[in-house]
Write a structure and sequence with these properties.
Largest sheet: 8 strands, mixed
Oligomer: single chain
Number of strands: 8
Bound molecules: 1,4-dihydronicotinamide adenine dinucleotide
Number of helices: 11
Shape: globular
CATH superfamily of the largest domain: NAD(P)-binding Rossmann-like Domain
Order of helices and strands: EHEHEHEHEHHEHHEEHHH
CATH topology of the largest domain: Rossmann fold
Strand content: 5-15%
């Protein structure tokens, strides 16, 4: 395969002032992208703001011979999202890639979770991706090219104690990505999701010594591939960390089918759980239409 490059391409990386986003921005710039390094700054719990992190990453990119501009808007409002996309237009005249990565944690057990923790985390991770992606998608549709990489988490895909707000937001990104993939297909707009595992300020306490080999750099190669013109994948999800990259998927099984004309009762469900839950013969639908086609084939 030819080298993955971003000649004449413009990428927005949100939350690129540190951790994973910084590494993604550095790699994209190294491969030739002009990069908008967005970061609001602030704490791991999303408090405060600071322009220094984004500015520092821009300096790092420039020192390495790359091209970047800083943006300090918050992804968490529609105005912030629009301003981030506008930064790319002002500096570089186009947007080819959006890496939705910005975010913070406000972990609490579900029984004790405050409304403020729910709103803050959904606003930044899920709505934030909408706020940046929507204006970018409109531009990509016009130009007939675009790549989205959304940052989800195993906490949403598989569940994790104390992270109902975060898990719900992260799983929502799969829905957003799937629909962008379906709606963007005919414009060469591709959309994929990564669920990373890396030692950053968000995870170092949680992971302890085990995290030492899990560098943010281990995640960026996949993100850059998915963001690249060379990438033909769309509608996919990957687990990535420590040098391992693996597919995650939502599958659909043939299931159990009631006799013709019979409306399933709760007792039918209980009696047929093995067939309902069996994973034999599953498919990975590309869309809701695919699900309907598969179900129609089972009915036949
Ligand atoms: P990080 O805290 O180093 O990076 C997140 C960045 O987002 C920070 O620089 C922060 O200032 C910025 N940010 C926060 N709110 C913002 C806002 N409203 N607007 C713009 N920027 C904002 O943490 P890390 O680990 O690099 O996280 C990056 C992404 O990866 C996050 O979405 C996180 O949820 C996700 N993730 C990370 C995992 C890990 O193992 N590190 C695991 C699963 C998901």
């Amino acid at each position: 395969m030819s080298d993955v490059t971003f000649d004449n391409r413009v990428a927005i990386v949100t939350g690129a002032g540190g951790g994973l986003g910084r590494c993604h921005a550095l790699l994209l710039a190294e491969r030739g992208a002009r990069v908008v390094v967005n970061d609001l700054g602030g704490s791991a719990a999303g408090e405060g703001a600071d322009s220094t992190p984004a500015d520092k990453v821009v300096k790092e990119i420039e020192a390495a011979g790359g091209i970047a501009v800083a943006n300090h808007d918050s992804v968490a409002t529609p105005e912030g999202g629009a301003a981030i996309v506008q930064s790319a237009l002002d500096a570089f005249g186009q947007v080819d890639v959006v890496v939705n990565n910005a975010g913070f944690l406000r972990d609490q057990s579900f029984a004790k979770m405050t409304q403020e923790a729910i709103d803050g985390v959904i606003d930044v991770h899920l709505k934030g991706a909408f706020h940046v992606s929507r204006p970018a998608f409109a531009l990509m549709k016009e130009q007939g090219f675009g790549r989205f990489v959304h940052t989800a988490s195993a906490a949403g895909v598989f569940g994790n104690f104390g992270q109902a707000n975060y898990g719900g937001a992260k799983m929502g990104l799969l829905g957003l990505s799937n629909v962008i993939a379906v709606e963007g297909a005919k414009y060469d707009i591709r959309s994929n999701v990564v669920a990373p595992i890396a030692k950053t300020r968000l995870t170092e306490e949680l992971m302890g010594a085990m995290a030492d080999g899990l560098l943010p750099e281990h995640v960026s190669g996949l993100v850059a591939y998915l963001a690249s013109p060379q990438c033909e994948l769309t509608h996919e999800v990957f687990s990535v960390g420590g040098g391992r990259i693996a597919r995650i998927f939502v599958g659909l099984t043939p299931g159990w089918l009631a006799e013709k004309g019979h409306v399933p009762t709760p007792e039918d469900v209980a009696a047929n759980l093995d067939a309902i839950r069996s994973v034999d013969g599953y498919i990975i639908p590309d869309s809701a239409t695919d699900e309907m086609k598969f179900a129609a084939a089972v009915f036949r």
